[in-house]
Fold these 2 entries.
Entry 1:
Amino acid sequence: MASSDAAGKKAAARGKRRRAARIVGVVVIVALIGAAALLAGAFDPSYQASDVDHNPPDAQLLARGRYLAAAADCAACHTARGGAPYAGGDALATPFGTIHGSNITPDKRYGIGKWSSADFYRALHDGLGPDHPLYPAMPYTSYRGITRADSDAIYAYLQSIKPVALPDKGNDFAFPFNLRLLMRGWNLLFLKNTLPDVSVGSSQQWTRGRYLSNALGHCTECHTPRGALGQLKLGGTLGGGELGRFQAPDITPSGLAARGWTPQDLQTFLARGYAPQGSVYGDMYEAFHHSLRYLNSADNQAMVAYLLGDAPPAPQPAPAPAAAGGQDQSVMAGRQHYLALCAGCHAVDGSGKPDVAVAMLGNTTVRNADPHNLLVVMLDGLDEQSFTGYNAMQPMPGFAGKLDDAGMADLANYLRLTWGGQKANVQAADVKALRGKGAAQQ
Amino acid sequence: MSTAAKPMPAAPAAAAPAVAPLPNRSVSMTINGRAVGPFEVPESLMLIDFLHEYAGLTGSRLGCGQGICHACVVILDHPDGTSEEVRGCITGAAYFQGRKIRTIEGHAQHNAAGEVTALSPVQQKFLEFYSFQCGYCTPGFVNAATVLMERLKRQPIEKDRVESVVTQALDAHICRCTGYVRYHRAVRDLILSTPGLTKESGHGK
């Protein structure tokens, strides 16, 4: 009895397990079919045609499209240095490989000449091209916020420019990142309808600024840290991100205020490329040249209103010049390096020279708690810069060959303590970690 | 900044005290093989002013004062036998403490009375090729060409690279009179006619 009872129990348990396995199997199969359908594009959205597909655009629409294309900085990735406008960009290095911005001139074979306005909107809004998904190097995570009307205007403008028959350079992504259909899964996980706000505001100006910054200007693509899969870590929105050799600094209201930014200075910086806090450099120089300087004054002010909020935090004043120094060995050695190698252009008192070199006193990079960018500029130098009008900054030589790691750290500490209001805590190892890392200049 | 642009007869000991007076520093260096100093100089003094107003060497030219035109460059001699150009207008005198430099005054040979007896090969070529007109940029060009010659002596280049290497070496120097071509020709000619600076082109290829 006892044994047959046990056998029955065992059989029942086996049956239960078998049933459970069957249910799991069905769920897995359904999930796999669902995932396959998703990755194959069965759930891809599609959009209606619009006026611009049928009616020839008028001059006003084209002008608006041109302005919006500049505000969205399409040229950053889609125009190569010295290349034809929008005919494809220079290499963009990502952790997954190198990618090139595609040809978005109206060439029928190599460009977007065959695209409809709905195709174009879907590319901006969903990261899906007519033939295959795009990679998120195309900032559709931000462009998702662009309105259909603005998308149509940009589309009409791009269709009006000179077609260039230049094939795309593509990318060199390795497996599995070369499988574009996986991007549909990425989109499911990381493509959000709205981006978090960096500041508090409700004014019309602030709302316009949010659109300019979050959607068109796609500030977040560089200024927000990214996760292992290249996704934006939106909890730290605009808190600063890695950007190749440089770091994109913290541009939250508190981050900007800590480095002394006022609304007026930030407006000047975005419109003219420099302000008392310093000049644009690195990738921001490109963004300034292709995009930010073209914003009209209402949009320029709106962008700043959004970045700092309707009630901007009080900027922290730069440290009093003579206060620093002290008896710190590193700082005293750094002062001698400054006088020997830097003061000729940046001036003994750190006030800089107009159109030659920026001021160190109150400089936003010197005031950054993280010395990364300061050290990179000191090691590599900067190319000559031109701004609006006749304003310019001269090329800064790199000093990698002039100062050893300890000397660099001493100099950085002198700058930070004297003019940055920061601690003299840069170590030789910090310099060593950055030295030669991808720096071709010198 | 210093009083570089103004021709001052005496040492600028009392620079305009707009801010706190700057401390002095003792600076000595070897210039053209001769020990110079020590001089007590303002710690922010640039090398060009040190040469003009302390060392009595007025041949180096102050041009832009911003490190662009390269009229002011001197030759810095490293202990390992290599040499490089350094801009005197934006490099502090104290940077050269204990170091060895050469200026335009150090190229020609002089007799005991201080008269020039022979120009350096670079100087001679510049004369032969009428390389300069007003001559303001010439000290910089002489130093640049000399540094290049010394480098090629250590590391000869293929003959077909001479053109581009000369361009590279002189590229940063600005001249407003003769348009560079005669400087370029002179240096090219000197390199090709000096044994040991070039090797035959096309080795292994």
Entry 2:
Amino acid sequence: MRPFTYERAADALSAVKAVASTPGAKFLAGGTNLLDLMKLDIERPTHLVDVGRLPLAGIEAADGGVRLGGAATNSQVAADATVRALYPVLVQAIVSGGSGQLRNKATVGGNLLQRTRCAYFYDTTKPCNKRQPGSGCGALEGLNRNSAIFGASDHCIATHPSDMAVAMAALGASVETLSPDGSSRTLAVQDLHRLPGDTPQIETDLAPGELITAVILPPPPKGGQAYAKVRDRASYAGGLASVAVAGGQVAFGAVAHKAWRAEKTEAALAAGASPAEAVEAELASARANGRNAFKIDVIRRLTVATLAEQGRGA
Amino acid sequence: MKTTMTVNGEARTLDLDPRTTLLDALREHLQLTGSKKGCDHGQCGACTVLVGGVRINSCLSLAVMHDGDEITTIEGIGTEAALHPMQVAFLDQDAFQCGYCTPGQICSAVGMLKEAADNWPSQATDDLTGAISLTDAEIRERMSGNICRCSAYPQILAAIRDVAGDAA
């Protein structure tokens, strides 16, 4: 690991000022993804500002919904009685990600900002436009079994690995941030992450030093909720594809550079289409690169199955 | 960087390079070599310790993040003279072959039973609003962050079942 300096932030505002004013600085919360990537020489921060102890871990009712502090752990969110009663899709998504040990460390904000698991991003001897802009994309014609089928570009076909974000996208959650000038803003979870385009190294719309202080869950939409995930082993593995459903809102995971809100499927369902017809409306824009072609079929079947599961639970 | 942690009940102050992981601080600076370095990337669970009673991967945490924390390693779970019930159960059920993953398995199991007692859900939990019934499926799912290369899983499950009692 390369040398870096470390400080524990006294409060949120001094944390964002420290990151904004120090070249090469990054926030550190749970550390489960960042430290792993630092060991692999993929992340190279020169200064870490620890926000894990800031009073940002509260989980509280807010306007008929729930406000999740950015430093709340994944385990705390999944264990919260109100979250379990109102947002089962979020709990199911969280507990299908990582292991118990990882969920005890990983935070709300850190989960959203975790990096892709694309093999070329991890292999520093291979080209990757996300890790080293301009070097090319090894996945385009390489090991792309787990690459994106929605919204990818010729520069990057990596996926976002979060399960939690998929449920949050389906629930229409928004992210609350704090900027170095002391102002705060909110943006929808599905607008937090960008599509790769020709700048896959820029993954979110956050400004340098902007800190995720909370995720706001709106009141749950009417109708049942369900989350389903397909992966190579039964537990403790990243997804090949996942589907979150909340009322008439649908999001796909592990198939795009972000949690993919399936708006065409939603519109078709609202217009009275069957689940099978509705998923085809979204899949019309799906593109595969070879080994990931099976994901189209997985999404097709998983969406129909998850909507049926939702129907049983509603 | 000065860091003070309470490790197995004893206050320990170390002057560490910030790069030092909690695992390396325990093993290389405090000579507590019970916690094992398997993958060093949070994938195997051999480094599992309890922080404030909560299980984490000590390889994916910096020691300096734990200033003021209470750490429990396998050396603090029990002693040769007074084994923890989970250690007794692992012996009774022969829940290991090479033993390398065992300290992590035992720390993880102790933390896991507390999580279940606190009614934390898992992927194997059908009713998210009811009380957890710690079925075999629940134990397997909750222990999936600990890999055993010798594949002693049936005996590990039996050992944890000994301590947990029958499913509700």
